[in-house]
Amino acid sequence: MIGSGQVRSYLPKAALYFGIIGAISFLFFNLIFQEDWTQRFVWLWFMVPLPVVFLIVANKLRFSGGLLMVLLAIAITVIDILISPGYPGQVAGRGIVYTIVFVSLPLLLSGLFYIIYRFRFINPQKTK
After folding, report:
1. Alpha-carbon distance 21 to 127, whole Å?
2. Buried (b) or exposed (e) across 25-43, using 16+ Cβ within 10 A?
3. Are the CB atoms for 88 and 49 separated by under 8 Å?
């Protein structure tokens, strides 16, 4: 039950859902890089649990976890720009637009929602 003066926010739940969508898309991002068949991108598999770990951190520490999610979204975009797997056009739909729309954007939104929730709805109010 919500008392007077309290506002219910759906930002943490929306941030969690966007984070889950971004984590699943990140798994497909890694699979696309593994279609190179030369095992050049094995190190990307160590990054698979990062979105899940960052979501766990964000549920406890909103600002720190949100910042980690934003940094991960930026890092994924940079990795996709700097590293090209296999032959261009080898995988249908693979490209920077895929990475930005399906991987980076949900992770970025999740991180921003956690940060906004931290500063907008969790204010350390002192009792009178």
Report:
1. 39
2. bbeebbebbbebeeeebee
3. no
128: its two tokens: 């009178």
Question: CA triplet 29, 35, 36: central angle to 5 degrees?
Answer: 115
Cα dist. 31→26, 68, 81 in Å?
9, 22, 17
Taking only the tens place, the pLDDT of each residue in 17-66 is: 999 999 998 888 888 777 666 666 777 888 889 999 999 999 999 999 99
Residues 75/107, Cβ–Cβ less than 8 Å: no
What are the extents of the domains in the chain? 11-35+45-120
